[in-house]
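Deviations from the work plan: none for this task. Representative record:
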Amino acid sequence: MKIHRRSLALMAIAVLSSAAAAPALAQAPSILVASTTSTQDSGLFGHLLPLFKAATGIEVKVVALGTGQALDVGRRGDADVVFVHARSEEEKFQAEGFGVRRHPVMYNDFVLIGPKSDPAGVQGSTDIAAALRAIKDRKLPFVSRGDRSGTHVAELRLWKDAGVDIAADKGDWYKAIGQGMGAALNTAAAANAYLLADRGTWLAFRNKADLAIVVQGDKRLFNQYGVMLVNPARHPTVKKEAGQRFIDWLVSPQGQRAIADYKVGGEPLFFPNAGDPNA
Amino acid sequence: MPDNASALQLVLSGDPALFSIVLLAMIVSLSAVLLAALIGVPLGALIALTSFRGRDGAIVLLNTLMGLPPVVIGLLVYLALSRSGPLGAWGLLFTPQAMVIAQTILVAPIIAALSRQTIEDLWLEYRDELTAMNVPWPGRVGTLIWDARFSLITALLAGFGRAAAEVGAVIIVGGNIEGHTRTMTTAIALETSKGDLPLAIGLGIVLMAIVLMVNALAWVVRRAAERVAG
Amino acid sequence: MTDLPIDLDNVTIAVGNATMLDRVTLTIAAGAPTVLIGPNGAGKTTLLRAAMGLVAPMRGTVTWQGRAHVPPVRRAIVFQRPTMLRRTTSANIRYALRAARIARGGHDEAIERLLAMVGLSRAADRPARRLSAGEQQRLALARALAREPDVLFLDEPTASLDPASTKAIEDIIRAVSQRGIKVVLSTHDLGEARRLAGEIVLLHRGRIVETAAASGFFESPMTDEARRFVAGELLV
């Protein structure tokens, strides 16, 4: 029967092609890093990973998610390394026994983005708490990530610092979109809304429309990144040697210099601080 | 991909990163369609040719599965393939194979439902002749699939269209890893989130052009073959 | 082993409320063609399908050389509107040869012989569904003969065909019958019945009204219905 021969041929093609789709799997050693949209969308990984590969031969595959989701991927054992930015969440992850040891790597800062017309009248201020209060009092449109990302965690902390109980006080003006930094920026650009963003993603973002930085430089806007090896004792499939080499490289002078060298439009996006014991 | 290039420039210059994205997207979606066809066509034929209790329910279920959101399938496959999931030992999460699995599940119900309809119509036409020729069951199924092959191509194209266009399942199980699991649709999602809307739209146009070419090719093949076999 | 004679004993078949065959008893034995006549809806098609084994009687029995439930291995049928497989003319015959499990080595020769017999040699590579109605009827006949049957059922084989096609089909039927294959055919064309029949079975409203040798039937019909049918008065 002709049909059987044809099915066999189809099956062979399907199997071969799916095998061909992953040629790198067996060859170069590779690790999987669960990280945040900010490190990917800002272009930092595009700069760092070729340098790391040249130095070690290890290939790094990055899955970019919000910090909360990235840590969940680590909890499930689906990543070897997590590289995120929400210290409280990272410490919880470690306390639960999923992370081996947290290493500070670098920082940048959050900035408050808003329409150039600045209806809140906070342009040029360095007091993020006062700025958020002004937005809330005038019920001006504000876009929140709403996705348990590092930026979302930071935003919630800042509302608290501003004395606003955002869970109780939010109204139509407060739009929690449950998506990544880029989607939040696109939404704010379309709605002329305020939002909190990490500086790196903001600088690399192309669709700025009428948005600009309105508040920056407040100490409370500090944004620390940390890296952890997923605990091989919890998940034996974790590639601990290769993963540890990536972490070691990030905090080494070589890796720290590579981070400092990454610039967009002449401006550095991240500032290495692996040596800072308090970070 | 170079940052400040338009999609058109990327295509014209034969950008290797774009080429590998297109290639991966095609390999994943075509593999998924082929696997889904191996499952869906015989399943559709089985339902078309048999009568059993709950057959109507099975058809309604199949038609419902056609509309299952890709994100839901992606999530289920993610949970199954995760290291903490039942199939975690396979180590397939965030690989192209995982994307093939998710898209196969996505596409198989469409192919099964459309095959069921096509084969059932042909069965009504052929039943008397095949019964009179004393053709056994496996032969009947084979004959119906073979003689419906041109109509079944349409079912496969519908499946391919859904696979090539979806982003929800592949981005969850593939992880959108540059150079490994980035496909056309996940690249479009990424460029959108980077705010590079012209590049995102350009990639969308490239995707549409590719789907158009696949459909045109299938149409030409179908027409040529029909002229020979009727 | 042959399937003849075929015995229908008190066969009743109904579809929904309509009785298609009503207590029909008939023996189909080897010999000259048996022709079923009667107006439309008389039950001719149902009788052919029952004798072929495609429909089971609701009451009564159908047996083939005394055996019940014999699969259609030694029997073949050409439906009134035969379905052409979506393949070429020769592939349609090849399919029938394969289904009949005829040794593969003889297929090419058999296809050539059958196509020549029904006058379709030049259409061998054309898609069967593009053939004219007359050509399709002839191909269906070739396909049925490919099975090398003992008995061949033909359901109105010349209905809606032009005179030339009708003559071609009737010539083939005669040749087939002379080769010793039992032909059972239905028609509402009295001329055709006269030209082909060895035995006539007149059906009316699902019942057999009269069974007779062809010569006797036309010259001295025994029942009133037969007289009226021959005179062209019995229409429904």
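Residues 20-26 of chain A have pLDDT under 50 and may be disordered.
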